[in-house]
């Protein structure tokens, strides 16, 4: 059993069994996205609002609750619910748009991703659904009245969960085979009274037939193959693929079409509305039937969207299980398969043949056989139980033996959220800009709004998203962090994701990587090479083919950076906001050229780090192929030149012992932007440790390095290390060890950048000492904001001004390990700390009297970050401490949210609540802290 999931993973990787064909690839939100925006003004939120989502067909991808689909999202399976009083069917998560939220877009529901294996052989999703009418209007109106200085008004604030009047809805998915999916829906009535709920597992086809392309006009068909009450839906596509959705008895099939209800949405306000022909049973037909009893489901029992309708009444504290099974394949007769003799049968053997599929002949379906044999609930339950046991065994093998129960829970849910955030992402920018043949042409104004230079981008892939509701689109630098965490359990998928962003249908011909769909041309930190190295190492450090593949494309991207973001050709870079959004007093992405040029400490440091990562890759590749020695030398020299420029210009303030951005005004004056922030800490991440003695057997590279350092002694200042007969350790670092020790005095100050839960985005020093600068006759300032942003930059929901963020904390931690491994002598700092007179230790925290090695400091920082998710002495997780319900209630407290960022003073989670993209890095920290795994220092050996 321990090896069952690993066997499936191996089969998926070698292509022998398509375990990844079906997965949780359905977004929690597709409305309000750039892809669905065909407006003249580019207001994506207003162009396709939540109110349209139930009635309007999506062009590019689908959304739903607890959704699964095939890898190309031809079909989707998801859950819909109705509590008997809501004004609409609960088919998708509700939230506020960017303009509606007082801190930007904000989902207003509570759900969790509790489990998932890499092959999605077992997945668990949980949702708390109020029994009273969902307060849509209250959430919109109350948040609209709140200012940016006030906290967000959340669903729990409405009182709707008082007296525990809600449903705990759990969906477990278990695969018997790659195309045989069991969906177990458990409904627990948490309230004090008996309650009734309508449950609708829903199957539909993504609309690919309405856009007017040749060969795509023939629709698939969903229909009922037997008499009423058969609890069965059959799907057929023009290419012969067939699906069968079978539910246990009591599920009544309802049918409509995945077509827009134009009569509801557009006819009254659109010229030529006589030409708008609304389908008889449109996308919202099942909604209107359930909510209002309208005659909007097809009495003929067919369509392109269908649901099995169950009505369930549950006693207080009781529960009910509904079982549904989806099978699919090609051109096989419709008959009920034999029930498994025992659920302990090997998962590999259960997959040898495709599961049964549908037939166009309803008469061939034996309803009685299905009800009595195929849906034997004992067999169904055994399969689900077995897959759950196999998932337990898989994660038991992954979890460190000394991890606490709470750490193990956080680890597993972090991986689950990351795996559930795999989303089908479809976007052909050329078609989006030009419009589809069967649709009105998009207004010409939109050509100037965004992405007009990315017509080559043609995405049709499953990608790890930052957050399936708030950020249901890929972000290139986020993805790098996602892949590092995922590589602990599925390195092949992580490698494939990194390669994907470098493919010709993503990477611009110029070499630029796309940032994200709101503006592919924005510039994010170049973290791809770093991530590739970490994934390579986590995978055992032997897949040189992968490393070479990413290296060749990254050479193009590095060249793009040097050609486009080094304005003065002086190795100082001006990347823009670089993912840090409004951390500075100025909008770093939109500084008018007539004002001046902003040379950035972080952009320059990112490029130094990029050069080191490419050097590291080249050296590793050269161990197998000496032709890489030349390019290794190139990046060695390039790094030294960047480091020299960064250290010997105004970016480094020797009095403050910190790095700052510098504004070069058009009148010739230089203005350092003296904000103590993560901007000045990124230079520490530009470090590479390696052991040369007897291992770095690259004579040409070593000869050239020695010549270069001899002839350019000024540049040798970035080379450090300790040397002995058995141990030649080198450190290439933008920040010298001496300067590092001065910097961390600022960083490890708990009245400065160090919080109880990690490094803050901006020093708390600026709480009482805001920084201001006058530019072009206007004063711009920045202060410390521990929680949500009060700035309107970037939609108002993005705040690096004080909160704790995982990605740069993790890079800083790994940099400390780099320095420790290559420079510091081994130190026994023990429980009481090391000797304060020892240069190999630092005081942590400042003023504590405790001195530690840098490696021990890295562990201490890791524990502070991990503690965000662990119950403290009061039993509350700091990330959820704001609400008693989330922190103490037995039905809530063990379900972990992974927020976008965390209050710099309290640790309360903020921003997106399902950011198991980069916040899943907590799993990486749990696995690499305290010697649990060899630290990923980037060390070359």
Care to describe what's here?
With 941 residues, the protein is an alpha+beta fold. It is built from 24 helices and 35 strands. A 9-stranded antiparallel beta sheet has the order 6-7-8-9-17-13-12-11-15. Helix 16 packs antiparallel against helix 17. The longest helix has 22 residues, at 377-398. The protein is globular. The model is unreliable at 271-275, 332-373 and 934-938 (pLDDT under 50).
Largest sheet: 9 strands, antiparallel
The SS-based structural class is alpha+beta
* Radius of gyration based on Cα positions: 29 Å
Widest beta sheet: strand line-up: 6-7-8-9-17-13-12-11-15
Question: How much helicity do the residues have?
Answer: 25-40%
Mean pLDDT, all residues: 89
Q: Kindly, what is the distance between the CA atoms of the first and last residues, rounded to a whole number of angstroms? A: 36 Å
The DSSP helix count reads: 24
Which runs of at least 5 residues are low in confidence (pLDDT < 50)?
271-275, 332-373, 934-938
Strand count: 35
The dominant shape is: globular
Strand content: 15-25%
Compact overview of the structure:
With 941 residues, this protein is α+β, with helices and mostly antiparallel strands. 28% of the residues lie in helices and 19% in strands.
Show the helix and strand layout.
Layout: H1 4-14, E1 22-23, H2 44-47, H3 50-53, E2 65-70, E3 75-82, E4 95-96, E5 106-107, E6 111-116, E7 122-130, H4 136-145, E8 166-177, E9 180-189, E10 195-205, E11 221-223, E12 232-236, E13 241-247, E14 252-256, H5 262-265, H6 285-292, E15 302-303, E16 305-314, E17 319-330, H7 347-350, H8 367-374, H9 377-398, H10 405-420, E18 422-428, H11 429-434, E19 458-464, H12 476-486, H13 491-501, H14 528-538, H15 544-564, E20 596-599, H16 601-622, H17 629-647, E21 652-653, E22 658-659, E23 661-665, E24 670-673, H18 682-685, E25 687-691, H19 699-711, E26 719-722, E27 729-733, H20 737-747, E28 754-755, E29 758-759, E30 771-775, E31 778-782, H21 806-822, E32 841-843, E33 851-853, H22 854-866, H23 884-888, E34 901-902, E35 909-910, H24 921-928
Antiparallel strand pairs: 1-2, 2-3, 3-10, 4-5, 6-7, 7-8, 8-9, 9-17, 10-16, 11-12, 11-15, 12-13, 13-17, 14-16, 18-19, 20-23, 21-22, 23-24, 25-27, 26-27, 28-29, 30-31, 32-33, 34-35
